[in-house]
Amino acid sequence: MDLTLGGVSEKSQNPEDWAPIVERVTFQVFYRSLGMVALPAGIDIVSKAIDILSSKGMGTWKWLITDRVLVWQGIPVDSALKVHCYVFGSKYRPKNTVLVRQGFWRMYFFELGLKTLDVFRPLKL
After folding, report:
1. CA angle 3, 25, 75 (to 5 degrees)
2. 13 — phi, psi (to 5°)?
3. Structural domains of the chain in order of their starting residue, each with its CATH number
4. What is d(CA 40, CA 21) in angstroms, rounded to the nearest whole number?
5. What pLDDT does 3 receive?
6. Which of 36, 37, 66, 105 is most buried as measured by Cβ atoms within 10 A of its Cβ?
C-alpha cells in the first residue's frame, strides 16, 4: 500500500483491482478534448490491467518501448465505437501512467521512432 499519494490513503498493487478503473477511464479518454487521463499507478500495473481487459475482448496492445510506452488498439466505448490509445509511464518511478487517445494526428513516425529507440538503445534505462 502507498501512503504517500496526496489524498489517497491506500493504493492496491494488484492489476485485477485496477482493471475496472482502466476500463472506466477509456470513456474519459474518448470524450475529453485532449483525450488524456492520468492514473496514479505505475505502467507495470496498468499494462497488466490492460492485458486482463484485452483477454476479455477489449482490444489488443503491444509495447512500443518495453516497460515505458504501449499502444492499445480497438478499445470499445460501449457499443458505439472503438478508440486507440498510447499509454505512457515509468517502471522506475511508478507514480502515474497516462492514457492518450490517438486522433487524426496519429503519428506513425512517432511509433516507428519509439520502436527503433527500444531496439537500438545502447543502455537500458
Report:
1. 135
2. -105, 10
3. 15-120 (3.30.310)
4. 11
5. 47
6. 37
Q: Which three cell numbers stand for residue 3?
A: 501512503
Q: Is the Cα torsion angle 115, 16, 35, 59 positive or negative in sign?
A: positive
Taking a C-beta distance cutoff of 8 angstroms, is the pair 30, 48 a contact? Answer: no
Is the CA virtual torsion 62, 96, 26, 109 positive or negative?
A: negative
Report the b/e string of 66-82 with b at 16+ CB within 10 A.
ebbbbbbeebeeeeeee
Look up residue 49 and give its three cell numbers: 490491467
How far, in whole angstroms, is CA 49 from its chain's centroid? 9
Cβ(32)–Cβ(1) under 8 Å? no
Tens digit of pLDDT at every position of the chain (125 positions) = 444 555 666 889 999 999 999 999 988 888 876 788 999 999 999 999 999 999 999 999 999 999 999 999 999 988 888 999 999 998 788 889 999 988 645 555 567 777 777 766 565 55
Q: H-helix or E-strand containing 28?
A: helix 15-31
